[in-house]
Amino acid sequence: MTLSLFSDYSLRLLMYAAIKGGLFQIEEVTEAYGVSKNHLAKVVQALAKLGYLETRRGRGGGILLAKEPAAIRLGALIRATENQPAMVECFDPATNTCPINGRCQLKGFLAEAMKAFYDSLDQHTLAELVAGRHRKGLERILFPPPVQ
Asked: CB of 77 within 8 A of CB of 52?
């Protein structure tokens, strides 16, 4: 299974927000990751609609986490941000033309694997992604000291 670029950017943006711990501007994230501002703006908008981010307009505005990092389960986030087509044709009854649908075990095996994937991610939070021995390295990369 491959995650969409949208999910990848969502994870990275939320990691940035969790480490930052306060208001930030989209340009900061663009610079930190080398990602298009237009792509990130779409991600910010979607994550705000989903309740993961809060956006504030005007002077003193910016972006910040709307939830505690420990309350953000990775499985739920990925379920909310993935918009990929069905893994195999028989998963979508509206477009299924497979003649062996219902007589084949593949659909069940794949559904079981997908469930295991999401169940595994549900065991982890955003807080875990940005904690521990890797945090200092993440901070150095995402928030380098100003060049003098």
From this structure: yes
